[in-house]
């Protein structure tokens, strides 16, 4: 079981991120239109999963803005931003911010957190997702992962984008 930290305090997760080289677990998330968002929807595309606790925090909002900006220049790539926020909150944020280069999806009724080993098992944000990035190739295999060691810090955008397979 992996750990991260929240303001210096250890937070245990429900598992570990998927291993590089293995198939990423499929998921069934809820999009802002209340329809399904699945990894299988992006066959033959590279996928960047930007995983975070809540869109209503500064660092989480910044990560969505930054990946939105970078996604505009990426070919054959979809960035999916995932949290346990309700789809309505995600839609409100994206509308207010002009976010249109990423897909936002809610894991509120999904096993995504456990399947990706990223659900917080304890601490004040227990039940929410920790901050992480998972990159898959066009065949759905994991090419890169980052569990951000401190939830209040941003992910390494350059490493995630740099890990996209050709």
How would you explain this protein's 3D organization?
Residues 18-166 form the Thioredoxin domain. Disulfide bonds join 60-94. It comes from Gulosibacter macacae. It catalyses: a hydroperoxide + [thioredoxin]-dithiol = an alcohol + [thioredoxin]-disulfide + H2O. This protein has 166 residues and is α+β, with helices and mostly antiparallel strands. The chain has one domain (7-150): Glutaredoxin. 21% of the residues lie in helices and 26% in strands. The protein is built from 4 helices and 9 strands. A 7-stranded mixed β-sheet has the order 4-3-7-6-5-8-9, covered by helices on one side. A two-stranded antiparallel sheet has the order 1-2. Helix 1 links the parallel strand 5 and strand 6. The mean pLDDT is 96.
Short description:
Helices cover 21% and strands 26% of the residues. By secondary structure, it is of the alpha+beta class.
In terms of topology, how is this protein built?
Blueprint: E1 3-6, E2 9-12, E3 28-31, E4 36-38, E5 46-51, H1 58-71, E6 77-83, H2 87-97, E7 103-106, H3 112-115, E8 132-136, E9 142-147, H4 157-162
Parallel strand pairs: 5-6, 6-7
Antiparallel strand pairs: 1-2, 3-4, 3-7, 5-8, 8-9
